[in-house]
């Protein structure tokens, strides 16, 4: 804390640079750039032009973050956070003051470091219960992978359905969420009826393990999977006992048909095993 106060005083005591700031931002001298970053004359446009330099020293970005007048501008604040050379001790505190959609933008920005994205996503996830339905819908539609995955357990079905269509959502997150003991019924229903996800084998296996999967969908999935896979899944499945019993009976019929086919009595055609 004492070092922070000392640095702040040094920044405030730094002399105003001589000459137009729009010219000085191209300087290669550290002292000049630091004086520009701390200048009371620094405008939004000049600050953003300065931030376009990918070679800015960390001290300059640190000084800019302490320029209270300039940092009131949201674009400048975002520019500092998203700059690849901004020190972590500068970036992390600023993220707590960003709006929901600013955080979402950061999470989707390729240049932002992975650890910063993780903090940004954690901040967003912690806010989900307190933001509006409309904001959650927007996050479900455009958010990053982890944000979309977090919204799979949203209390509103429409948010879940939009999250399932999110282009960043991956199969592993759908499987993980369906496999959870507290997986909400609306999610199971939405996945069972989703044109894309219910056809993925790992998702099908997860649905066969979930106690909320309806009989009709469980039958359809079991018929699409190989016999040995269905047998293994049913062994550890949390499906309702009557559904498990029905599927086990259907599985036995498939096995018997396959035996007949191998014995030279093809009988009705069966799915590939």
Describe what you observe in this structure.
- The protein has 273 residues and is mostly helical.
- It folds into three domains: 1-94, no CATH class; 98-169, no CATH class; 171-273, no CATH class.
- The chain has helices spanning 2-13, 21-24, 30-38, 44-51, 58-65, 74-82, 88-95, 100-107, 114-127, 133-142, 145-150, 157-164, 171-179, 185-192, 201-209, 215-224, 227-235, 241-262.
- Helix 3 (30-38) runs parallel beside helix 5 (58-65) and helix 7 runs parallel beside helix 9.
- The longest helix is centred in the C-terminal third of the chain and has 22 residues, at 241-262.
Helix content: 55-70%
Strand count, sense and barrel status of the largest sheet are: none
What is the H-and-E element order? HHHHHHHHHHHHHHHHHH
The number of domains = 3
The Cα radius of gyration reads: 28 Å
* Residue-averaged pLDDT: 90
How widely separated are the two ends?
A: 67 Å
Low-confidence stretches: 1-12
Strand content of the residues, in percent? under 5%
Can you give keywords for this protein?
273 residues, mainly alpha, 3 domains, 18 helices, disordered N terminus
């Amino acid at each position: 804390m004492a070092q922070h106060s000392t640095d702040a005083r040094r920044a405030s005591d730094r002399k105003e640079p001589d000459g137009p700031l729009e010219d000085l931002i191209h300087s290669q001298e550290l002292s000049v750039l630091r004086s520009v970053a701390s200048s009371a004359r620094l405008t939004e446009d000049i600050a953003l032009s300065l931030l376009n330099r990918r070679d800015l020293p960390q001290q300059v970005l640190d000084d800019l973050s302490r320029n209270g007048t300039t940092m009131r501008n949201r674009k400048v604040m975002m520019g500092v956070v998203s700059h690849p050379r901004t020190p972590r001790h500068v970036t992390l505190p600023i993220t707590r003051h960003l709006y929901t959609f600013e955080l979402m933008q950061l999470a989707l920005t390729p240049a932002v470091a992975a650890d910063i994205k993780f903090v940004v996503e954690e901040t967003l996830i912690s806010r989900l219960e307190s933001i509006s339905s409309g904001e959650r819908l927007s996050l479900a539609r455009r958010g990053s992978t982890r944000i979309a995955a977090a919204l799979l357990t949203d209390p509103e079905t429409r948010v879940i359905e939009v999250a399932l269509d999110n282009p960043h959502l991956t199969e592993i997150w759908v499987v993980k969420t369906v496999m959870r003991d507290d997986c909400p019924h609306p999610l199971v229903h939405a996945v069972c009826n989703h044109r894309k996800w219910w056809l993925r084998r790992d998702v099908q296996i997860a649905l066969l393990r979930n106690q909320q999967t309806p009989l009709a969908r469980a039958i359809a999935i079991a018929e699409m999977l190989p016999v040995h896979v269905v047998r293994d899944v049913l062994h550890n499945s949390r499906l309702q006992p009557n559904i498990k019993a029905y599927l086990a009976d259907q599985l036995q019929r498939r096995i018997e048909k396959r035996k007949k086919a191998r014995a030279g009595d093809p009988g009705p055609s069966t799915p590939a095993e």
